[in-house]
Amino acid sequence: MDRDVLDKSIVLCRSCDLVVRKRALPSGVRALCPRCNSYLYDTPYCSINGMLALCLAALALYFPANFFPVLELHFLGSVRTTTIFGGAMSVADQGYWVVAIAVLTAAVIAPGLLILSVLLQVLIVKYQLHNPFFRKIYKGFLCQHNLISQLSMLEIYMISIFVSVFQLSDYTDLYFGIGTFCFTMLFIVVIFLQREYDIEHMWSVLNEYK
Amino acid sequence: MSTSNTSAQGQRLGLTCCPTCTNLCQTQNKTCPRCGQEVTSRDYSSIQKSWALLITAAILLFPANLYPITVMTSQGQVRKDTIFSGINHLIQLDLLPIAIILFTASILVPMLKIIGLCIYLLAISFEVPISKRKLMAGFHIIEWIGRWSMLDLFVISITAALVNMGQLFDAKPAPAATAFALVILLTQLAAKVLDTRLLWDRLESNDDRT
Ligand SMILES: [Zn+2]
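# zinc ion complex -> structure
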């Protein structure tokens, strides 16, 4: 069998190792494994400028979302606020550092790394920085991309804020802070960023400059 | 997609899919030409790693559910809530939707994950005749819902940071929080390290009607 033809025309299922012949797909359609229904591939749709804009928007929202208060509690005349970062820290202060690390990783560190990693990848592709140093960085980010995007759990934190509000509304008055607004916007921007980003396409960019 | 080559495994053609960048590689090369990471056709040790992580998680499930996860002080009254009693309390407060969300995220999802992975590993290790398609469908569900267990930890961190007014009104995490965090971490890892391609090698195809 000719290896070059083989490499481009077939794909292996990552879950069950089935050999599947690749076909052209209309955009927005995903190919699933006929045997185990795992995701195989889709048509790469990746706009570098669009991703750059989304990255910058996400970066601008990231800091207010993490360091402005998400919730305000009014109790007997005194006001308490908390930020996402502060929530994790207060759990750590009481000795529950496993919980604190989990919260920090999923809600602060992983989303931050995700935005930063995509931003740098986009900049390297856009300005065609393909000397060995940038190639190495680019490759490193691509290798870690799946892990980072799995660890970031913005959507779950969103729901958690609302669950906390309902839980506590029985005891006291709660108000949303400016952080909640920024966090919601960040969440929406990151959803669009992840839709736009295609890791197969990013890998193929690396091959072009061999 | 063609069903004529349903039984063709990549392993038989000497091909494999790079676990890091999903590039098609020849098994004999040992490293992926695109990302430089090591490639092997199958990871046989993944079953043992997955079992070890899963058994540890199953053991930790007991302290996570039996010990209190939060301590709430309200007007001098101290309440210690386990995951279950906390949900029960929410039902009594007529917050049924919140109770259902927390029940799903904190009790149903971890239990289903452990039981599901256990069935999956039993099927591979002891070649229990269960339909591979059903197992794989279950596995996809487990991978997708697993993240949602983080919800309870986020809620605890938000509540602990906000509700902190000494004797009058106070909320703190309790020992089960760490156990619960570890259950989430270990079950996620157990699903992640498992090489699902082994399922399709070890079980004979007569378990499936197709
Ligand atoms: Zn498959």
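# post-check
Confidence is low (pLDDT under 50) at residues 1-6, 206-210 of chain B.
Chain B touches chain A through 71 residues (CB under 8 Å).
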